[in-house]
Every structure is written in C-alpha cells, then in structure tokens.
Amino acid sequence: MDSKAFKKRRKNNAQTQEHVAQGVQITNVPRKKKQPPSLALRAFLGVVGLLLVVATYWSFDVISKLRSPVRRPIEVLSDEPLIQKMEKPSPPPKFTTPYVPVFTEDTARKEAIIAAFKHAWKGYERDAWGYDDYNPLTRGGTNLGLEGSKGVGYTIIDSLDTMIIMAQNEAGIDEELNGMLERANAWIENELDFDNGGIVNTFETTIRLIGGLLSAQHLTHKDPTQNSIYLSKAIDLADRLLPAFDTPTGLPLTNIHLRDREGHADPDNSGWCSIAEVSSLQLEFKYLAQLTGNEKYWRTVERAMQVVRDAFPPRSPRLPSIFIRPDTGRFVPFGIRVGSRGDSYYEILLKQYLLTNRTEYVYREMYDESMDAVTTRLMRRSPVQGLVHTVELYPFKAGDKAGKISLLPKQDHLVCYLGGLFLLGVTEGFAPVPPKKETFRENQQRKLRDWSAAMNLIETCMEIHDTATGLAAEITYFETERVPAPEDEKREGKDWYIKVRGATADDAMLDPRFILRPETIESLFVAFRITGDPKYREYGWKIFQSIEKHCKLPDAGYTSIRNVDKIEGDAGREDRLETFFLSETLKYL
Asked: CA distances (Å), 458 to each of 85, 216, 453, in order?
C-alpha cells in the first residue's frame, strides 16, 4: 500500500474510530450503485438460464448416478468419522421471539459488580502496586518478564478501560473509582519505564499493554489522535516490540527484550510461533497506525498476515496448525483447534475487518472460509445430551498411521468466546435487536448456520458450569458413541466430564481449575446485546454469584480455584489474580 492509499484508508477509518473491543456499532461503507444490464443482455441470460434448467432436469438422473462421493481431504482415525455437518442441525432462529428484549439497567447488580472490582483493586493497590500480577493469598506481586524484570504494570494498564467505564456511569462520576484511576495515571506518567520489562511475551505485551493504553486513549479523548500520556507510552512500547518482527518472513518471535529491543524465539517449542500470537497483534498496531498516521505499524503486521495467508495449500480447508515457523513461513504439522494457541486467529480475522470500517474485505472472506471449515470439521454433537461442542485434530507423524488424523473430543474454556464471535459475524454489530429476518437475507445459509452454532455453543458453555462450585473447568471432555467417560469421572445423565487425574499420582492436573476467565461471559455479553434476551443476563449473574462465593477473599482480592468439583475453601485456592479478571471478566458482566 502506498502512502496516498494509506492516508485515504486512514480517512475512511476515521469515520468510525471505535475500538472493536468496546462493541460499538460500525457504519456501512458507501458502495457504488451498480448499473442494470441492458435489455439484450437480460434476454440472452434468460434464454441461457432456461436451457440450463431444461438440461439439468433431463440429465438429473444420469448425473446423480455418475456423481463421485464427497471429497474427504483427510482420513480420520477416531471413534467415529469426521462429520461434514452436524448430525442434528438446529432449527433456524425464530423471528417472533418468545421473550421481550430488555435493556433497562439493573442498578443493584451493576453496583455489586463495581464493588467486586473495587474489592480486587484495593488488594492489588495495597499489596502489589506496580507489579504485573497480584498474589492475594501471600499479599505480594510477581512480574511476568524474565531476566530480573522489575515489572511494567500489566494489571494497572490492562484494567484502565474497565475503571474508566465504571467510573463514568449514568449516575455521575464514581469518586472512589476516579481516585483509583488518577493514581493509576500518576504511576504510568511518573514510574512506568519499559526498560524494566526484561524479556516479555510479544503477544501478551501487545494485547494487554498497547491494547490497554489505546483503549484508555479512545475512551478519554474526543479526538483520539490527540497526544497524551497513553498515546506516547503506546508509541514507545510499540517501537520496542517491532524488532520481534525482524525475521526472514516477518512473523514475530514469541518474546522480546524491551530494553535491548531484541527478539527471542520460544525456547519451549523449537522456536516456532503459535498461530494465535502472530495473527493477533493486528488490531493494536493497525489502530496505532490510524491514530499516528505512521504506516510502519500497519505494514509490519500486514506483512505477517500475508505470510499466514500464503501458508495455506491451495484448496485446503482454512484450518491452520497451531504452530508456524518464523524462518520459513510454513505451518508445522501439529494440532488444529479453536482453543489455546489457535483461538484468536479466528477472532481477529473478523475484528480486523470491522476495525478498518470493513475496507479490508479479504479478512471477512478469510473469516467466512475459516468458519465454514470450523463448523464442518471441528464441531460435533454429544450422543446423549446433544450438546454442540468443538473438537481438536492431531496428525500422526510416523508409522502406519502417518498422514492420518486423530480426533480428540476436548474443549478448552477458551473456546467459549466462539459463540459471541459467531453472532458478531452474523450481524457485524449493527443489526436490529433482536435481529429480524432481513438480517439473514444476504448469505442466508451461512448466517443461519452460524447463528444456530452460536446459540448451541453458548448453551453448552453454560451446561459445563453444572459443577459443585457452579464454575466451568479449564478443560472439558465429551463422550462419543464409542468412547464413554472413564467410570470414575462419569456424570449421571451427562456426556461430558473433567479429567482430575494425571498419568501418575504426582501429576498436577490443570484441567479442573477455574482461573477467572472471561470467555463465556464475553459471549453472554455479546448475545444479550444482540438478542436482548434476558436469559443471558441471568446466566452472567449466576456465574458472578459463584465467583463471589468461591473465589472472593474476605479482606481483598479474588483467587483461582484448583478444582471446580470440590468445595475446599482456602485449601483449594491458587495464589494468583489474573489481570483479565479486572480488564475483561468484570467489564463484560
């Protein structure tokens, strides 16, 4: 893209400088009016069409006998064949809704959620101010960087937009929250020094720090291009992250030394990059390019996306491996999933399209192609409850099974973002509430499919909250027709289960944990905003009550819990408060 084209696109984007994370409506891009075909051309096309109809009718029986079977691009070695579509397709959405859309404020619940934020923040400010993470049990903090990192305030910066939104509500300014925000701003201006960061994760630093700073910039300035401490710090940090992209392909390395401005490959995964990380930096860098007019931010992340686009073999399903090589730009034969290390690849395809005022249609196309593949190859129904869930695919690399694919009926809690993403893809954030029949007029079959997938997946994500604590585990498995749940993990009347034992007695299982994740709640937020159905508000409130009961500490702060199926009190807690609890979970509630 040349400079003139970049400026023109920046001007178009300025019409809707709404950060996608805020869920704000997007304005349509003006389109040229098409000229109708001439009378002669229409007559010619009519004759051709008639001939095609007659020929099709005459030859249908012969063609049907000669037609080859549906091409299966991979052979699946699993307990049952890989489905091409869900066995029990859900009916299309009812346009006469059985509920009355509700958007009135629930003041009591809102105040309870704001109080939860204050409760967590007071503990962090008292015990771990300036640290990246908060350890509420030991009343201290830890930093996420390596090599003696002194911390760069992940919790402070990641929580800015939640504080700003909560402090400035319809009832006026919340003075207590405003005071918290002022102290956070003072720390950013006077104490934040990215030289202290050491080696940090490129992806996490981008989404939590640059994302946090730019969200705060957007929410506090009528003209987001106006210089401020938020924007200047975002520019400083982005410039420090750019050397991570200095690879033969332009794909960013997993880690970056903030002081030395030098990229570092992932030492734990052969130097490979995860597909989620290399394709999830685009929102922040493109928005920064839009605010500053500096093309380098846009060009850098766009080059990485071009490498990802080119990595797919021709005519292959648009399902990337979770790993890609930064030296060659080729996918590593590995797992395929919409959960960890794969999740935000799918999410950011759509959000890039929306962020750029729908001018980069290539990402809408990539999103649609990916969802076509996800719904036909990575989604199933459970045999007993009929729960729609996702699965993971893994290739065999050697032996008699080399080149074949195994299927694992496993779903991360992370996957529960997908319901909200499907809904956003159907409506693009500006359909009437609830959506009407006209919403589904264009690309009707795909939209009805995605709407049905969203509704069903959200219900599944709520079903797996049916535990002793009312909270969902980090990882859930689903029974299949040939492979039932282990006897000691089976649930009566259910066909999903949680693994609680490792390969040996000493293994610490991570599957049963609840770490205050936002993904289910994010989908509930989107579903409520798009449908107006009050049940999604009730679902969210139910989860919040379980968090209050099992994760809240009396003095200050919240913790993760080790096993959602055991009520163990303090003995079952983990000493960490994730930054996303403040920046996302409570914000969506």
From this structure: 19, 30, 8
